[in-house]
Amino acid sequence: MWRRMTIEISGMKESDWADVARIYREGIETGNSTFENTPPSSWEEWSEKKVNECSLVARDDGVIVGWAAVSPFSKRPVYEGVVENSLYVATSARGKGVGVALLEELIRVTESFGIWSIQSRIFPENTASLRLHLSHGFREVGILEKIGQMQFGENKGKWRDVVFVERRSKTVGF
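Given the sequence above, the corresponding structure tokens read:
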């Protein structure tokens, strides 16, 4: 029986890590979400590379069904307001509005922290992610050709392109 999802977005906490890692693994298994072959081994390893105040989880009926996070683009002070985003939705929740809810809240939260540019590198085959980003004010900057080589799975050894997209805030940084 079909049930409408009730999506609640909140800040990511250490206690969410097992579900975040599970959903990350599901994305990795598609072969079209990341060059990584495993999630970080611990919350500490994960959180040391993120802007934790902007990390979010989506819940449906109390169950985590997606997450979004940002990482600094650079450690140089001139780029303090530039981040790269990651957004993953559980296999069971794809196509049900979770990504839209997460990305909208991620944009709001990052702007509240003074972030003026969100960037993402998306495999061209990941058409759902490209559509999601482009429909939320991201623009395609270009294609980074054969930027990385897959290290696992059926695509091991294959060089991959990524589509580089960015969203510039209309309210922050100007």
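The CA atoms of residues 12 and 56 lie 5 Å apart. Try to locate this feature in the token string yourself.
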